[in-house]
Amino acid sequence: MGNIIINDLWSFLKPEIFIAGGIFIILLADLVIRDNRKAIHFTALIILIAAFASALLQMGTESFIFYLGKGNNHGLLAVDPMSTFIKLITIFSTILIVIFTITSEEFKGSKFKSGEFYTLLFGMLLGMLLLSSGADLIIIYVSLELLSLSSYVLAGFIAGSNRSSEASLKYVIYGATSSGIMLFGISILYGLTGTTNLYAIHTILVSPHVNYLTLGLSILMIFIGIGFKISAVPFHFWTPDVYEGSPLPVTAYLSVASKAAGFALLIRFIKVGFISSVGTNGFWNFYENFDWQLFLIILSIASMTVGNLTALWQNNVKRMLAYSSIAHAGYMLLAIAVLSEKGMLAFLVYIAIYMFMNLGAFYAVMLVANKKGNEEISSFAGLGYKNPYLAFGLSIFLISLTGIPPTGGFIGKLYLFIALLDGDMYWPALIALLNTVISLYYYVRIIKEMYLTKALDDTTIETSKTELTFMFALVAPILVFGIYFTPLVNFCTNFVRILGF
Amino acid sequence: MSGLPILTLLTFIPVLGMLIILVLPKENPKNIKITALLMTVIQVVLAGFMMSGFNYNAGGIFDQASFQFVEKFRWIEIEGGSWIGKIKIDYFLGIDGISAPMVLLTAIISLIAVISSWKINTSVKGFFALFLLLDTGMMGVFVSLDFFLFYVFWELMLLPMYFLIGIWGGPRKEYAAIKFFIYTLLGSIFILLVMIGLYFSAQEVLADGSKVYTFNLLSLMDKSNYTADGILSPFNPANLRLIAYIAMFAGFAIKIPMFPFHTWLPDAHVEAPTPISVILAGVLLKMGTYGILRINYPIFPEITVQLAWYIGLFGVINIVYGALVAMAQSDFKRLIAYSSISHMGYVLLGMSSLSVAGINGAVLQMFNHGTITAMLFLIVGVIYDRAHTRGINDFGGLATQLPMYTGFVTVAFFAAIGLPGLSGFISEAFVFIGAFGYEPVRILTMIATSGILLGAGYMLWTLQRIFFGEKKEKWASLTDLDTREYIMFIPLTIIIFLLGVYPSIMLDIMSTSVNSLVDFISNNSALSSFGGI
Known about the structure:
The structure holds 2 protein chains of 2 kinds. Chain A has helices at residues 2-12, 14-32, 37-57, 81-103, 114-133, 137-155, 162-193, 198-205, 212-230, 238-245, 248-274, 292-311, 317-337, 341-372, 383-386, 388-402, 408-422, 426-451, 465-483, 486-493; strands at 63-69, 72-79, 275-278, 284-286. By secondary structure, chain A is mainly alpha-helical. Chain A has a domain at 302-501. Chain A has a two-stranded antiparallel sheet. A two-stranded antiparallel sheet of chain A has the order 3-4. In chain A, strand 1 (63-69) and strand 2 form a beta hairpin. The radius of gyration of chain A is 22 Å and the shape is globular. By secondary structure, chain B is mainly α. Chain B has one domain (6-524). In chain B, 68% of the residues lie in helices and 5% in strands. Chain B has helices at 6-23, 29-52, 99-116, 124-143, 147-156, 158-168, 173-199, 217-221, 241-255, 264-271, 274-299, 301-327, 332-352, 356-387, 398-401, 403-417, 423-437, 442-467, 483-501, 504-524, and strands at residues 68-78, 87-95, 203-205, 211-213. In chain B, the strands form 2 sheets. In chain B, strands 1-2 form a two-stranded antiparallel sheet. Chain B has a two-stranded antiparallel ribbon with strand order 3-4. Chain B is globular, with a radius of gyration of 23 Å. The two termini of chain B are 44 Å apart. Classes of the chains: A mainly alpha, B mainly alpha. Chain A binds chain B through residues 278-282, 340-342, 345, 385, 399, 404-406, 410, 414, 417-418, 421-422, 424, 426, 429-430, 433-434, 436-437, 440-441, 444, 448, 451-452, 484-486, 489-490, 493, 496, and chain B through 75-84, 87, 123, 151-152, 155-156, 158-159, 162-163, 166-167, 173-174, 177-178, 181-182, 185-186, 189, 192-193, 196-197, 199-200, 231, 240.
């Protein structure tokens, strides 16, 4: 019996094992080679690349892990294509974040403790990996807390910075409250169904004897926890402050990886818990107990509209990107709201491209902030002439975030709208498109500042060749997928399936 | 037709030029300008070469076999699972009698605009790189026959145009640039929605017999390809074809620009540098009417017939409103901008007639408007370069001092008014003949004729205020045209005269296609199964 578990672990949980092991390795390495920061960066990268490769290798596998016991064929964790995809996204963005960290000016000082940083970063990543596979509400909650606790500390990682400490404190307060409410929701759901396993809950919700009002209440409470992670309106209030105050690599990480994990949880929660089957036409058939579609449409439209309208007024680019990431959470939520396999595909395509363009935008902003010391929009004045390469890269990221061809962002939007129209959701599609037009204004505002405004001072913004190469490595997929998206979509199509559905 | 992929070359030669310019050192702006000139000259030569092999008897419009210089290969192909069908998008180029004049126009106007940009001295490298990218976008729109490809080219122009107005423009350039950007993007989201809606409504049969959703414009024109329950399928009793038609029409109308979506145009024109105004008036505005003719008309023929009167109505509003507002302008460039709005109204009116004469007139008017208005903006540029003001009332009595300039101005003005013997007359006459013959828009046509009167009014009044009357001392130092300016004006003047006395050169190119478009609409507009809204 023991061997079976170990075999299972090794065949399906390699990424998690690598990362968990990585935490120890980094801690040890930090003791031994404390002064050699480069070596620690390097170690972290090696571990992450190994984890990424192992996640790639387990493509297509589906299995439960940690069976609950005799007569019960559900496990605590479910490894399946969808979770593998989210693992690939989160690990890959962690790799990118390590590179961010190496070049970040905020992390240059002697106060930066790289050992602690990577321990926490890996803790976050481990939380995300488990979250995307979690099939049991208990393990979901525990991994969510692992993710959150690590990120609270990372948000305040710049010692002595008031802004950073404030961000961290706000994050803790919001985070603790919402996860508390979520836990309460979980307990209600447990009371209703007598189990914490999503797959078992699925079989129980078939029965019409469940009290729908109580069920709805518990769903709402659980959703508060999820909504907090993906920063959907109205659970978004922490986002701008935390994003603005956190060190930039951490902000970028929160905006992509942490969201991806939150979405993975949402998808599994809905698809495993509440649908009876997937139709041959790709639409999900639901039990008549909760109107997920309406609920998600309202939240997504609120997210994109509030996010975009508020972003119009921001003068700090980091804060603007925080609101823009709320809007993008709205678009992705809308893709899920179609409640079909096409919607899922649209979500996967969107988040893959979103990873490149959002991280890219944050990276370009960081390169400017490295020299300027702040992210105010006025710092970008005349960048198009001071550093044409950097400005060009940032422009591509922003155009892609708007969703204009020929960039990858357009492909993400295209798949989203194909899914929406396929699901007869005309009004949400129209509102999402109008939001695109609104978002154009503030994205172009940065472009305008870079090319149309004269620089206020003659400070140069220099970037090293390595930094530019890395940035263009992020530009390349956006342009390539914008013109030729067959490989991306084919890749994503493989990952739509969820264990059991 | 030779093996040379001539349309691809036409479309991507400018991109090649852009890449060359990007690697050229910016210290030597002359090389950059020469590269851009070379590329546009090649484009004109290619366009001429294309016309030499053009078959005047091929209809095009809905029939792939009669399109010319067709290039078609699979661009995107995605095999789906059970729940998602195969997705395929073609790289599909081809021209017929409606797009050929537009391709020619784009090539000519781009060349003239490059010559007119010779005096640009700030960030030369960026200017010409963006200019050539814009050129590719415009050319691509006129040659694509796949909706997706069309849309990509359509959007590709937005960003270069934004920068070209925003960086090299006048005092309120930022406002004008973002206004242009937001208006056009708003228009294109409607086009995008309808594009996806159409995609889900029609299935093309592939060579192996399998059916696949399609962006192919020609397949979308074929009723037999539509599914029974597609949202924009005519066979679905609850279809949304009318709404889709209006949405897409609005998307294109913003580009024309049609009243009430026209407010971005005067701002964009006034702030844009001369060459960009030339491109904007000469080519960009045509894309709106071209889109309606190429996509709205043949894909929704029954709704086109239903709404023809409204198209005519908006055409007349454009004509009269544009002319009245033009009359009230004291800024030379603003006046030309409004006159351009007014003259685009004729295109809409001609299109609304659904007759051979009217649509021939409309397409010819698109070409003539392109050359005449381009020339008018060049004229404004010439005087602005010298006097640094565009106030009409600031000038007076320039005729004796700048005789050659005045000569060209007179030709352009009279062509714009529609004087017989000049190109504008022919197209306007065709428009009126066609529209008058179509019962529903007859009254509108009568009202529209007042546009000619108003046009003559503001044009002649402007001519009088600037060139006749008392000579002003402060303009004594103004010099007449230089060689570069002759090079810009002479070809346009030749075209204006040539098409005025011998319009068949152009009409022969388009008439077969216009005939087949008109036939196609009348054959397909009366199916009884077209219900719904």
